[in-house]
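Q: What changes when magnesium ion is included in the input?
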Amino acid sequence: MIQIKNLTKKYGSTVAVDDISFSVKEGEILGFLGPNGAGKSTTMNIITGYLSSNEGEVIVDGFNILDNPTEAKKRIGYLPEHPPLYLDMTVGEYLSFMYDLKKVKLDVSKKNHIDNICGLVKISHVTDRVISHLSKGYRQRVGIAQAMLGNPPVLILDEPTVGLDPKQIIEIRSLIKSLSTKHTIVLSSHILSEIQAVCDRVVVINAGKIVADDTESHLSNTLSKDSRIVIRIEGPEQEVYNTMAGIPDVKEIKTMGLREDGIYEYIVEAKPGKDVRREIFKRMSTRSWAIMSLKSSEMTLEDIFLALTDGTFIANENNDTKDGGDK
Ligand code: ADP
Ligand code: MG
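A: The predicted holo structure follows.
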């Protein structure tokens, strides 16, 4: 549905996007994951034709965004990072205005089309409200509704849950899932769990370069976050360490130091796919060392990049990392 080939975008001497290529299949929800400044918004602005690239091409449903911008853009609904909402319009006025601006032509009437979309994104009850009076979650829904005007087969959503509270995040995620039955979706985020919750496939970008392109489940398995736990144990630090280190499935232990009176914290990494929690419990209890807390440790984006790039990841922008060991 979307082919992105060898895109490069420079801002002066900053290389924001550095020779990236990937494609999105019809019906897929693709997660575009990377830290702030990685180049996500720049890429999305190029895909949607809002920004031109220095090199490379974007083809949407067979139409090149440069050669055939009208046809290509008709097929894309875009929720930019900062949706251009007109705050003093009502929701209904805004959607009607955007409908006209996009020169939408469909078999159904304008009113029916807008009503229909409002129903899908669950904003029918606020169409008479002024946008400035809406919560951030509702504004985001209005932005998504705007992207859906004209029934584009592709939706590009740039960090759709950023700045929302946890309840709104869950609602927007389930909205996106429900839209995926009718749309091919590309969604960016700097949060791994977000991508895991919603996407079929994930493309990971860092410092303008793609460092992984994989199915979500495969990436999660490779980076199984359950294999690492943070544990606090009441007992002598070195002996506790040695006892845990004696468990065959333990790969690595980091001591984090004294956290409470007599209680030390450790980060224990198990071998891939192994669960060492029961064995730790058994061995600690035979010595009467109390486990005061135990939780699995989520990998940070930086951990992921390190894992993906075999340690060749460098957290800065604009460095010419060699391709050695990348995948
Ligand atoms: P992301 O969306 O992943 O946070 P961006 O695409 O916004 O990343 O930015 C990628 C890089 O390009 C960053 O280093 C950012 O500072 C730079 N950049 C983005 N927009 C501009 C601009 N208009 N002018 C100059 N540099 C920019
Ligand atoms: Mg961005």
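Observations recorded in class: The chain is about 30% helix and 30% strand.
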